Amino acid sequence: MMNKDLKTWAVAAEAPALIGVVGAGVMGAGIAQVAAQAGHAVRLLDVREGAAAAALEQTGRALDGWVAKGRMAPEERAAVLARIQPVQELQALAEAALVVEVIVEKLEPKQALLRELDALLPPGAIIASNTSSISVTALANGMQNPARLVGMHFFNPVPQMKLVEVVSGAETAPEVAAVIEQLARRWGKTPVHAKSTPGFIVNRIARPYYAEALALLQEQAASPAQLDRALRSAGFRMGPCELMDLIGHDTNFLVTQSVFEANFGDKRYMPSLVQKALVDGGRLGRKVGRGFYVGTPEASAPVAPPQHDLPSVSLQGQGGVVEALAGWLTHKGLTYERETDSSWAGLRIGGMEVHLSLGRSAAQLAFERQQPELAVMDWPLAPERMDALALAFAPRSSAAAQAAVAEVWRALGWEPLVLRDVPGVAVARTIAMLINEGADAVWQGVCEAEAADQAMKLGVNYPAGPFEWLALLGAAPVVALLDGLFEAYRSERYRVSPLLRQRLFGA
Question: How many domains are contained in the chain?
Answer without folding.
Answer: 3
